[in-house]
UniProtKB/TrEMBL annotation:
Positions of the Glutathionylspermidine synthase pre-ATP-grasp-like domain: 19-392
Nucleotide-binding in keyword set: yes
Protein name: Glutathionylspermidine synthase
Keyword Cell division tagged: no
Record key words, sorted: ATP-binding, Ligase, Magnesium, Metal-binding, Nucleotide-binding
Organism: Paenibacillus ferrarius
GO molecular function: ATP binding; ligase activity; metal ion binding
Length: 398
């Protein structure tokens, strides 16, 4: 058995919530809803080690795929990447191997038999950092459990020592609790003196990005999904600023290719054709840890349909063994109105028993500065969406 739920909720939840807020995790409770589950999921060490192994190989696989896509407008279109970004992707050089994105998170399903399958990669604006890097180590330590997440802070510091942003931004900074807390944690862990701003306060003057009347921004970390430059007012101006190198945005522009779920379909196609882009070991990793994924509805049963740029469960549809729709996400925004869909073989999340009842567990694994690290547990319905809850994952002692 890979996972075991341990501990019981504290009789004084508010004291725990207050302490977590002091550490920087201020949304353990959201109004009257409990976002944080006051228990620990204990993961078998052998399975954890294999998860790290899977992430290391898949990170190489995805990196090669981005370089294969770069420069091909036909593939940009196939991956549903907004046309406004194409010139920048062609003109700018991607980061060195392994560092196309320095802040990413794989989302896996790991069943109780130890079978690991990748569901998707969030390689542009991964949230859950505060839960993983701050809350999880503290919660595990309080129970005498090992957390592999302690290295996350040092990896962020190393990443920003290279990128050296002067500004960090998210929409509704100071108002949106989760995004603000994520930005603040990144800045604190970077060790840099930085200015945090609201993306809605930015304006662009002939390619120059400014905040206020005189402050020019040339290097910025932004918790802003790049695909929205093809939709938002001002998106084209920001894309131009990046393309002309008036500003360097982190993660850099090519992270949008990693972000597209269409890239998983491309990787699977290259695998099915035994393309020489991948080594024998890389093909083995694809076969072991990825799911058949296509840009056309070729699967007839037990599959999932989702937008190439869907987030928080929005747009996800699950189909059963008869090919009929079983469940559809109704809470998240369906981004397939803007972006194409992919069709992926279904691999359900394991169901665990918590004090609050049975919930399905999604296992997130961060990749920071090229290094797989940092477990993130999300527990909820069969589709992980906005109503899912955070639960800390620790690792059994050897």
């Amino acid at each position: 058995m890979v996972f075991e739920v341990i501990g019981s909720p504290s009789p004084d939840r508010q004291a725990q919530v207050t302490k977590l807020a002091e550490l920087g995790f201020t949304w353990a409770d959201l109004a009257t809803e409990e976002y944080w589950i006051d228990q620990i999921v204990l993961m078998d060490r052998t399975s954890y080690d294999e998860l790290i192994h899977a992430a290391e190989w898949l990170w190489r696989v995805f990196d090669k795929a981005v370089r294969y896509v770069t420069g091909s407008r036909a593939l940009y279109r196939q991956l549903s990447i907004p046309e406004v970004l194409w010139d920048g992707l062609d003109r700018l050089q991607p980061n060195d191997t392994g560092f196309i994105s320095r802040y990413a998170r794989f989302d896996f399903t790991v069943n109780q038999d130890g079978r690991i399958k990748l569901l998707e990669l969030n390689a542009d604006t991964p949230t859950g950092y505060v839960e993983a890097a701050i809350a999880t180590p503290w919660l595990c330590e309080a129970k005498g459990i090992e957390s592999p997440n302690h290295a996350m802070k040092d990896l962020v510091r190393a990443a920003w020592a290279i990128e050296a942003p002067d500004y960090a931004a998210c929409t509704a900074y100071g108002e949106h609790m989760e995004d603000t807390g994520t930005i603040d944690a990144f800045v604190a862990h970077s060790g840099r003196q930085m200015t945090c701003v609201d993306t809605l306060d930015l304006w662009i003057d002939e390619g120059v990005v400014k905040v206020g009347k005189e402050h020019i921004i040339t290097k910025m970390f932004a918790l802003y999904p790049k695909e929205w430059m093809g939709v938002d007012d001002g998106g084209e101006a920001l894309a131009y600023a990046i393309e002309e190198q008036f500003i360097q945005l982190f993660n850099p522009l090519h992270a949008v290719i990693l972000q597209s779920k269409g890239l998983q379909a491309l990787i699977w196609s290259l695998h099915e054709s035994n393309d020489a882009i991948y080594t024998t070991d890389e093909h083995k990793a694809i076969a072991s840890y990825m799911l058949p994924t296509y840009t056309e509805p070729l699967l007839t049963r037990d599959y999932v349909s989702k937008s190439m740029f869907g987030r928080e469960g929005g747009s996800v549809e699950l189909y059963d063994a008869k090919g009929d729709i079983e469940v559809k996400d109704e809470a998240g925004f369906d981004t397939s109105v803007f972006f194409e869909r992919v069709y992926q073989q279904r691999a359900d999340l394991p169901e665990l028993s918590f004090a609050q009842g049975k919930k399905h567990l999604l296992t997130g694994l961060f990749v920071l500065n090229g290094t797989p690290c940092g477990l993130l547990g999300r527990a909820g319905g069969i589709i992980t969406g906005n109503t899912s809850q955070f639960v800390a994952i620790g690792v059994k002692a050897p």
